[in-house]
């Protein structure tokens, strides 16, 4: 990514969104980071991370972080956000990352559709699918007007992933991929690229807490789940997005469903520890019973 680009990372309070925002900042971008949790108020997720912290990390990495509290289901808030970006950046928006999720408290993993709370499932669709649509609807005209830009829809799994284990979660993640594909078709005549991107086993703040470890001691979590040995930091996902944003031929990915473990072979970035986790190959080999030492896949 060339310095001076302007990015909006919707859903950048923590996890993958924060990792993406920081790595775009490291590439010299001005990054608007949005979310619901600020230094003075928490979202229903009730996590301690804030958008101000993310903005500070973006600036410390070499970019310019701008924190804006936004509920991306509130259309007027999204409208005002995009109007602010247009006014402050002379109509420029180079990268839009739709990463809004916040669905962990609404996701049920151990029951079929008809035994899950319907209103929670419908709320999950609004929170993690409708937010992406609302944000794109307001933001895309900035890109179309300039005839350039990159839209990244962050999801879980690839287009051919198969069932993700629980109905409403699967519907969200597959819908986000389809949102990317549909945007790609609409945007193609206007020189704007849209794609979907998945991390592997993302080692977010919430996941570290779930395993009772810190980033420094994360390998202790492997005792609880062997797959955790192949986990990757949010920086890995962020570096994948930064590589895409820097690619002058990024339009070749238009409409594609991509993964960090695929893009690393194209762009050669690394995770924070210098490794290159290949979650896709490890998971496939594990399903076949042929997986070796996880270190051989990093």
UniProtKB/TrEMBL annotation:
This is NAD(P)-dependent dehydrogenase (Short-subunit alcohol dehydrogenase family). NCBIfam families: PRK08303.1 (NF006159). Gene3D superfamilies: NAD(P)-binding Rossmann-like Domain. It comes from Streptosporangium brasiliense. It comes from the Bacteria. PANTHER family: DEHYDROGENASE/REDUCTASE SDR FAMILY MEMBER 1, DEHYDROGENASE_REDUCTASE SDR FAMILY MEMBER 1.
């Amino acid at each position: 990514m060339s310095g001076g680009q302007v990015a909006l990372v919707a859903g950048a309070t923590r996890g993958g969104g924060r990792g993406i925002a920081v790595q775009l900042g490291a590439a010299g971008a001005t990054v608007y980071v949005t979310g619901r949790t600020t230094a003075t108020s928490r979202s229903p997720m009730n996590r301690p991370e804030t958008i101000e912290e993310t903005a500070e990390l973006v600036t410390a990495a070499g970019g310019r972080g701008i924190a804006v509290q936004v509920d991306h289901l509130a259309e007027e808030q999204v409208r005002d956000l995009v109007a602010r970006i247009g006014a402050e950046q002379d109509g420029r928006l180079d990268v839009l990352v739709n990463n809004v999720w916040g669905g962990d408290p609404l996701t049920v993993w151990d029951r079929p559709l008809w035994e899950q709370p319907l209103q929670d499932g419908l709320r999950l669709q609004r929170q993690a699918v409708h937010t992406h649509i609302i944000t794109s609807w307001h933001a895309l005209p900035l890109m179309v007007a300039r005839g350039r830009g990159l839209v990244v829809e962050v999801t879980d799994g690839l287009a051919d992933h198969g069932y993700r284990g629980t109905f409403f979660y699967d519907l969200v993640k597959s819908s986000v991929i389809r949102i990317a594909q549909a945007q790609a078709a609409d945007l193609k005549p206007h020189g704007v690229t849209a794609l979907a991107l998945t991390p592997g086993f993302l080692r977010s703040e919430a996941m570290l807490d779930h395993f009772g470890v810190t980033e420094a001691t994360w390998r202790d979590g492997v005792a609880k789940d062997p797959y955790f040995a192949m986990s990757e930091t949010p920086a890995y996902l962020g570096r994948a997005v930064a590589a895409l944003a820097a690619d002058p031929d990024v339009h070749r990915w238009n409409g594609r469903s991509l993964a960090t473990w695929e893009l690393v072979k194209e762009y050669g970035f690394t995770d924070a520890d210098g490794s290159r986790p290949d979650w896709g190959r490890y998971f496939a080999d594990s399903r076949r019973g042929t997986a070796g030492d996880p270190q051989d896949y990093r």
